[in-house]
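User: quick one - fold this with S-adenosylmethionine bound?
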Amino acid sequence: MADLPCNDAMGVRTRQNAARTGQSRQPCGRDLPDNRRAELHAANAGENALFAVQEMRDTVDEEDDVMPKRDGQEQPTGPMKGDFIAPPEVEERDERADALPAQEEFWRPPVRFGAVPVEKEPLGWDRRKGFRKLFPQVMLPFQVVERVQFGHPELEPNRLFWGDNLHVMRQLPSESIDLIYIDPPFFSGRQYNVIFGDQNELRSFSDIWEGGMPGYLIWLNARLYEMKRLLKKTGSIYVHCDWHASHYIKVEMDKIFGNECFQNELVWHYETGGASRQRFSRKHDVIFWYTRSASSWVFNGDEIRVPRTEKAMQRAQNPTGARISASDTHKNPNDVLIIQQMNPMAKERIGYPTQKPEDLLSVIVKASSDRGDVVADFFCGGGTTPAVAQRLNRRWIACDQSRVAVAITADRLTRQVEGQLTGLHQVPDLTVEHWGVYEARRLAEAPPEQFRAFVLRAFGAVVEEHEEGIHGYKGALPVWVGEPDQKKAVTAADVQAFANAMRKTLRYKQDNLRDGILLAWAFRPDAQEAAERLRRLEQTDLNFIRLDMIRIDSPRFREHVSALSTQNADYENFLTFVQPPRVEVGHKRIAPRTYKFDVSETVVMNAGAKIINVQWDFDYGKRFSSTPGYSFVRGSKKEPALQAQYEFPTSGKKRLACKVQDDMGGEGLWAAEIEVK
Ligand SMILES: C[S@@+](CC[C@H](N)C(=O)[O-])C[C@H]1O[C@@H](n2cnc3c(N)ncnc32)[C@H](O)[C@@H]1O
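Assistant: Sure. Structure tokens for the protein plus S-adenosylmethionine:
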């Protein structure tokens, strides 16, 4: 089985071992020592017990928090909940050399055609530094917020990312994926494309459409370019689009992948929806298939054979002139796939407009990957691709920048695996990893060294392990990081200790470097005064120290990220910290075994946020998996339904849970036991 691209967990990276690149496949490291895990587990268990007396609020997602190590059992493979995965070092290399195919001949048309007004290079390509200049890398780690366990900890988990796919992809190793399918938002310039409505999604849509069609293509090209880097030499990419932009996208794909790597323009034909009176009804989408290499790729035609027509079979019976044998009842499909859209009652339907049918994805996954291969979808929406990959026993990576999409995908996969657990194949766990928007509460629970590594990395500094009292360096400046707990503000004693540590450094003694940085959630007034005193010495005493005190959740901290912004990428919203909503659920019996639930009393903790989605699990067991039909419930005007009604199949004690997401990215969980009558 292929390894899933995975980077080292954080907290172990120092300046000494920071030289790794994302180029090679990296083993997943465990950075939490056993005793620390046990401690954390015990603490969580205690917390559970305390809350269990009440309503189990917020405790439930701690239940599967840390995987207990059973006697004689191996430490689980891959990252665990609470881990941070450090980004790889950026590699300085000439992108043009290894990324764009030589296609001079293709772009030089025969003289008789005259001039063809196309650029040789993809839109947005910078002649000096490729897409990396237009969209600089942002070095933020992945925060593993969940590891949903399916009983095979020894297997490398599948990975579900919440974040902008460009930056998520930048942190994955080259040549590690067998098949990529994407269904990006199409270019229509209308808000219709906004599916989930959370802030990240809205922001990205306004960015995408801002520059019109060229802006859209530049945005997409940077991502296609990264996908090409991620594909294995025998890998394939399928790009799903429609009449809005397909003609432009193909031209760009020719430039990025090489037209010799083009394999098919698949037409997905369906008959749902009304008929047009003004023109031919638009009843197809286009899916471009390109391969990484022009000479070797996977195509399992046998796996996707379709029945021959009745007419062809009749001809086959004819002893004279039959070209196929009568037993040859199936053939490889042609490039028009006739697959109907899901009907409104289909079990797989999640309820948003762009969800693609599993049958369509099955054809693609079967055709272009083998069992155990890694399949990725970086615009996963409601998770159709990972669901199909999972069912067909492939490994998978999925990403979406909408928190709701990620919640729905995690839930869909969990529900599917629960229905599958008795099946023959072993299902790896799945991790949910955040990039760019972090849950402050979970950061606060991290061990101090891991928290420090996270903060230093986000600040663009490196960890220092050997100088006492100094946690890292940003360039030549020593950096100190406060406690993970947001309530523990920095004190005057902390400031003094850092100043003393600085005075011991060679930089201070020899190079006369007197500046340092303190990073923390908050600073007490006495800490501010202490720093002021040290600075005042500048007038009288050579022992002075200049300290910059920067709050972690502040525009100043974020400055180094927004400094990377370019005309094409607005990074100032990256690196935000969110709080989970405090979920309140009221319930009322309205008929035998039938109850009404209401979450409208829920308190969102992020300023200006509103509830964007509610999921219900009326049979809550080991893991959250929503009851079918209760994952993405929308009222009129796409508003999330805050009330739900449910008829329990039997009476008695029932455990139920509710997950609520707000539009800033906070997610809260509530669980309780009720007596159903
Ligand atoms: C058309 S939908 C995909 C639907 C999916 N094929 C399915 O069957 O459910 C496009 C998705 O791309 C996501 N998206 C848009 N821009 C993104 C970005 N920069 N990074 C990650 N996801 C993005 C949107 O949030 C949306 O969920």
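One thing worth noting: The mean pLDDT is 82.
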